[in-house]
């Protein structure tokens, strides 16, 4: 007999991260527990806080309600979003469920995810993120993150604010700096603001336009020496291939919760075969999710990812994942994909018992 319990937590950020599309100050995250006879497995899936590229907690719950015991899911019943978004929610839900079964199997085998992937390193480098802040605060946060060990900084930008904070970060540190627009620029009306960004010595400009404006992104990429990166546009292997075909990007943010663990590995492999660089992207997860990201990042050290433990950005991590040491993030090396979450106080969203 197999039992499933789905929990929802509200993860509070220690410091809010204002972005062009929203202020990140709290993040809903779902935790799935699968108990199968003598073993249990866990997985974590961060959720969006509103309409957008990625599914909300309610959309994920609706998709999981249609999931059967073998990890398949459908959209025939209960989907609360338009068809494309519902299909994406189903894909994410399938990966979420599969990750819990993977964790269960690894715990039975007494192996960590890192060991199962063949990772030989014990730690991994990490990048940091800075919100849209006044220049003095942006400069201060940049120095804090670099002192912690961040090898690259991603600074949120918007056409509604000047480049002064970004320039302050560039002046304050000697690590590569990325400008992350979260799709907030318009190809025609924000030309002047784009030019101001592209005049700076950026490592790359990430997601300048809306996810579906790949041809406009390709046109921008063709007229600048600053590399273009994609995040919200990179939701499938097909999207990555199309980005390469158009010449729309040179860097891809691969977020494992969008692809699943095997899918994220394949996405990085496909991107590399197309001449694109990749990094593992985060979503302000708790420690279970971050452990997965770190193991995946350690397997391919192309670019350091968003893998620092949640103690660097959350007020409290229900998984109590240890933080960076000597400028590196230690990998989770005990059985399973990551530490077991403490679900005390979490909301139960779904309970199911399946017979053999």
Layout of helices and strands:
Elements: E1 2-18, E2 23-36, E3 39-46, H1 57-65, H2 83-109, H3 113-117, E4 123-124, E5 128-130, H4 135-148, E6 153-156, H5 164-172, E7 177-180, H6 191-198, E8 204-206, H7 214-222, E9 228-230, H8 237-246, E10 251-254, H9 256-259, H10 261-273, E11 277-280, H11 287-299, E12 329-330, E13 347-354
Parallel strand pairs: 5-6, 6-7, 7-8, 8-9, 9-10, 10-11
Antiparallel strand pairs: 1-2, 1-13, 2-3, 4-12
The gist of it:
The chain is of the alpha/beta class and 356 residues long.
Note the main attributes of this structure.
356 residues, alpha/beta, Enolase-like, domain 1, TIM Barrel, 2 domains, 7-stranded parallel β-sheet, 4-stranded antiparallel β-sheet, 11 helices, 34% helix, 21% strand, globular
CATH class of the largest domain: Alpha Beta
- Approximately how much helix is present in the residues? 25-40%
Largest sheet: 7 strands, parallel
- What name does CATH use for the topology of the largest domain? TIM Barrel
What Rg do the Cα atoms give?
20 Å
Strand order of the largest sheet: 5-6-7-8-9-10-11
Please count the beta strands (DSSP E, at least 2 residues each): 13
Distance between the termini: 5 Å
Average residue pLDDT: 93
Spell the H/E element sequence.
EEEHHHEEHEHEHEHEHEHHEHEE
CATH architecture of the largest domain: Alpha-Beta Barrel
Please count the helical segments: 11
């Amino acid at each position: 007999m197999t039992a499933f319990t789905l929990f929802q937590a509200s993860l509070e950020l220690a410091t809010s991260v204002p972005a062009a599309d929203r202020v990140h100050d709290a993040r809903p995250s779902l935790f799935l527990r699968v108990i199968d006879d003598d073993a249990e497995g866990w997985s974590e899936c961060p959720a969006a806080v509103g309409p957008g590229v990625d599914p909300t907690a309610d959309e994920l719950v609706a998709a999981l309600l249609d999931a059967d015991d073998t990890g398949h899911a459908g959209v025939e019943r209960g989907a609360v979003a338009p068809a494309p978004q519902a299909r994406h929610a189903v894909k994410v839900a399938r990966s979420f469920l599969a990750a819990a079964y993977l964790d269960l199997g690894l715990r039975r085998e007494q192996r960590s995810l890192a060991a199962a992937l063949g990772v030989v390193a014990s730690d991994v480098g990490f990048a940091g993120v800075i919100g849209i802040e006044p220049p003095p605060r942006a400069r201060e946060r940049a120095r804090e993150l670099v002192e912690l060990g961040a090898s690259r900084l991603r600074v949120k930008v918007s056409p509604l604010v000047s480049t002064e904070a970004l320039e302050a970060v560039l002046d304050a540190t000697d690590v590569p700096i990325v400008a992350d627009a979260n799709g907030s620029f318009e190809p025609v009306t924000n030309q002047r603001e784009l030019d101001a960004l592209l005049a700076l010595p950026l490592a790359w400009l990430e997601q300048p336009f809306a996810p579906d404006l790949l041809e406009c992104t390709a046109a921008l990429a063709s007229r600048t020496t600053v590399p273009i990166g994609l995040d919200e546009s990179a939701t499938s292997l097909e999207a990555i291939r199309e980005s390469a075909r158009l010449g729309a990007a040179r860097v891809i943010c691969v977020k494992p919760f969008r692809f699943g663990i095997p899918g994220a590995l394949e996405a990085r492999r496909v991107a590399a075969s197309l001449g694109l660089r990749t990094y593992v992207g985060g979503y302000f997860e708790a420690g279970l999710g971050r452990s997965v990201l770190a193991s995946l990042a350690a397997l391919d050290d192309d670019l350091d990812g968003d893998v620092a433990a949640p103690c660097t950005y959350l007020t409290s991590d229900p998984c109590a994942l240890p933080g960076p040491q000597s400028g590196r993030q230690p990998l989770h090396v005990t059985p399973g994909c990551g530490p077991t979450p403490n679900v005390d106080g979490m909301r139960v969203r779904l309970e199911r018992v399946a017979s053999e």
